[in-house]
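FORM 7B: Structural annotation worksheet

SECTION A. Query
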Amino acid sequence: MHAMTPPPPLLLACLLALLLAAAVAPPAGAVCVPRKPDGHTKPGAPAAKPAPPKAKPKLTPAPPKPTVPPIVPGADIVRSLCMKTDYPDLCTSVLSKLPQPPLPGGKRLDGAGVLRLAMAAVRAKAAEAKVAAAALANDPRTQQLARGPLHDCVESFDDIAYSLDQAEKSLAAGDRDTTGTMLDTVRTDVDTCDQGFEEREELKPLMATQDAELAKLASNCLAIATAAGLR
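SECTION B. Predicted structure
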């Protein structure tokens, strides 16, 4: 047998080149897309991770608006209604000293009960003022010109008691209009006593102190009746 003749060196070089080209060539159908360079990324650096989405700011709820506490029956109703008046301190101090009327069946004090207490305070102060006016009218040291206005004050204070009686009856009957009218009359009766002295400038207003307190107490009655829905 004849020995095989080795291929020439040039042929071997060509075969080797073809094998290397086949090894590095991309597979059939593959398309190479060149990557666009990033201005902030260095060549050869790993791709930057996408930034996480920004969290939305939490909205803080607006504070609730203050609400007026409802007027409920009980021990605090006196203070609650007195705070609705123009003279809350006087109202609270006077009404807290008055004995509360007995309530049947464990019933708690309500708005009508507070109004009755306020009217009782006016009645008591009017009675005191009547005694004071009568004493001054009968005092020999009192100016003769002042005796007429003092007698008018005595009558006005009697009128206050009558108006309170009518307001009490109307309140018991649930007649809000008449209740309000009679409470307005109480306030007018107080002014009537003052007017007798105001018409005579030379006279000192002898009942000014009593009238001022009565005016405040009568004003409190009106405010309490309004706040409690009784007029």
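SECTION C. Observations
Residues 147 and 185 are 24 Å apart (CA to CA). Confidence is low (pLDDT under 50) at residues 29-34, 39-43, 65-72.

SECTION D. Sign-off
Analyst initials: ____
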